[in-house]
Write a structure and sequence with these properties.
single chain, 416 residues, mainly beta, seven-stranded mixed beta sheet, 1 helix, 9% helix, elongated
Length: 416
Amino acid sequence: MAAPGGARRWPLLLLLFGLVHGASAVFVVKDGNGTACIMANFSAAFLTSYDTKNGSKSVTFELPASAEVLNSSSCGKGNASDSSLVIAFGRGHTLTLSFTRNATRYSVQLMRFVYNLSDTGIFPNSSSKETKTVESVTDIRADINKKYRCVSSQQIHLRNVTITLRDATIQAYLSNGSFSTEETHCEQDGPSPPSPTAPPSPTAPPQPSPTPVPASPSVSRYNVSGANGTCLLASMGLQLNVTYRTRDNTTVTREFNIDPSKTTFGGSCTARLVTLALRSGNLLLVLQFAMNASSSQVFLQGVQLTMTLPDARDPTFRAANSSLRALQATAGNSYKCNAEQRVQVTEAFFLNIFRVWVQAFRVDGDKFGPAEECQLDENSVLVPIAVGGALAGLVLIVLIAYLIGRKRSHAGYQTI
């Protein structure tokens, strides 16, 4: 077991990774001799739902900078048996990574999250004050004496909680008390890890077979509020364009409309991130808006989708991108576009947005700020103006030609 005070938290490493995320930190577990046996460097976001008097509400929150490694963390016996990293934050929330190993590999055999619904800072107006525990196996594994490296966002689903790890470096059973120079990459990164500022680059699927296009989705109004009032207003219709392989190994592209009458929504407000989460049956769509502090530009920078496709070879479809820059407007203004917006999230997933009007961060009550029109709408106005101008010019040219011709015809006669 780690000696009291042996587990400590190193200085924060502030990372810019697509969205403006919470701080990434190196968490360290040491044995009784003060030698590090586990090191982990990552940032994490938590998405879950809870019950209020007004129904279910979704919430997203980050692993905060104040998170600490607990002394209940363990190096195992002789750094050769099961070990664990326990991180605590807030009012009684803990994230535990339990490690196991064999002769050649080690893995995070289990990830457990304990959260306290009486923490009103994260779960305002919760109808329950109990502490809940969720856990799941993971696919985090690496070769012995190598660090696990995953630049891409990685989602771990623990019943009704989704944990997204970002830019993760994890190693257990350390041989020299620090990260190894060799690493095992996660499947999401592929053969070589992408740049932290680049969007995920999943393998491009084969050319899909076309399918019928459904009618445009219904437009609905959404809002998200926090301790300081409303932080998001949105009116839009949402459609998912998904490419996947069916059970008979056929690649298809299908479009699914978000039905507002069957959808619940919620979200969260922080100084750097505004989140809108929509849940419909086995579908969860998360939109994350960020603000560039230097330019005061607000934009959609993160989209996450988890849904079930019964006819797919892999029924659980997941896609995420935290490096977008769509629906952009100046802080205090709203973004408005009547034309369809197609946002490419990954090679296999496009988010189609219809008749969107959205404003994040500096929102005055329930009213949209001054609208910044999209380029497509401006072009649609300019086209009829240009056509009208061309027609007017043509009429003017014909009229001038007629008058000149008439004048010349009179010039051939003399008065008697």
